[in-house]
Amino acid sequence: MWRKSFWSYRLLSTYVTKSRYLFELKEDDDACKKAQQTGAFYLFHSLAPLLQKSEHQYQAPQHSLLELERLLAKFGQDTQRIEDSVLIGCSEQHEAWFALDLGLNSSSSINASLQKQEMETELKGSFMELRKALFQLNTKDASLLSTAQALLRWHDGHQFCSRSGQPTKKNMAGSKRVCPSNKIIYYPQMAPVVITLVSDGTRCLLARQSSFPKGMYSALAGFCDIGESLEEAVRREVAEEVGLEVERLQYSASQHWPFPNSSLMIACHATVKSGQTEIQVNLRELEAAGWFSHDEVATALRRNNPYTQQQNGTFWLPPKLAIAHQLIKEWVEKPNCSTLPA
Ligand SMILES: NC(=O)C1=CN([C@@H]2O[C@H](COP(=O)(O)OP(=O)(O)OC[C@H]3O[C@@H](n4cnc5c(N)ncnc54)[C@H](O)[C@@H]3O)[C@@H](O)[C@H]2O)C=CC1
Ligand SMILES: [Mg+2]
């Protein structure tokens, strides 16, 4: 455990002190409880974050502990419910940030779910589905609320020990749950997913699932199987979904993705052997897949507004905040960047 008195915080960078402060809050329940007193809370209802509209923009409001206690009292709720909150980050000045869901059934409060509409009126905002909310927010808030929702969802779904069947207990920060009877520790999980933009040197391969919004095409994605390396997962997914063999691949970047459950999206560029570009779409996984020219993709990126695209019937690409968008943009800017052997 990092103790403030032990470390000379002044010698460390802001980022390092922040990281160590968050580490301390995860490890030490008393320190975390203390941090709640000066902290800020983001509110959710059944996993939908609270947003407020100011002028033309939405923002995610923060509430102090005092405001939260008043709110809960007003709705006849025990302040014990605040113990369900999870730590999601802190400011550079070490103001800790928490998230609390007022709609999910609470293990520490009897009168579980609070009425959504009454809360919205009281809070002068609305609980918006996260997929919609992400389009309305700046990058920092979008990322914070994604983390918050992922953590809240994980706690909601892991309230019992899978060995003893007993209720598990969350630590103050929400970084783990412990079974009191056998001491098994459960940590929040995310599934590794590979997302690959395949190129044949001049064109790139885009595909769509029937569940995608109308007209949207993206790179190939798939969950890693147990025991697989990243490289093996890319090769298998490309073979499974479009019947092609990857020749070379290059890691690009990664992203936490909260839908439908937490995934760690690992994005790669890949090439296939020239002359072996005939696609055989696996219709159990995909609705359609095809090769798109550099010009077509560059044009789609420039006019990437889903609403006008849907009306025109032309294809469109995932929004900026999705790593698929970044992967496609990278390829458009540098079409020959797939250099590492698979
Ligand atoms: N952030 C981004 O840019 C993008 C994110 N994605 C995400 O990637 C994820 C994976 O893509 P898919 O093509 O759907 O995967 P996929 O090609 O592996 O097919 C999904 C199927 O895999 C099986 N599966 C294996 N392990 C699973 C697990 N841990 N959780 C759920 N299903 C599992 C299920 O049968 C499921 O129906 C999606 O959930 C999607 O949200 C997809 C494209 C872009
Ligand atoms: Mg897939």
UniProtKB/TrEMBL annotation:
Residue intervals of the Nudix hydrolase domain: 188-315
Necessary cofactors: Mg(2+)
EC numbers, comma separated: 3.6.1.22
PROSITE patterns: NUDIX (PS51462), NUDIX_BOX (PS00893)
Substrates-to-products reaction catalysed: NADH + H2O = reduced beta-nicotinamide D-ribonucleotide + AMP + 2 H(+); NAD(+) + H2O = beta-nicotinamide D-ribonucleotide + AMP + 2 H(+); NADPH + H2O = reduced beta-nicotinamide D-ribonucleotide + adenosine 2',5'-bisphosphate + 2 H(+)
Domain of life: Eukaryota
Record keyword Hydrolase present: yes
Gene3D superfamilies reported for this sequence: 3.90.79.20, Nucleoside Triphosphate Pyrophosphohydrolase
Keywords from the UniProt entry: Hydrolase, Magnesium, Metal-binding, NAD
Keyword NAD: yes
SUPFAM superfamilies recorded: Nudix (SSF55811)
Protein name: NAD(+) diphosphatase
Protein's gene: NUDT13
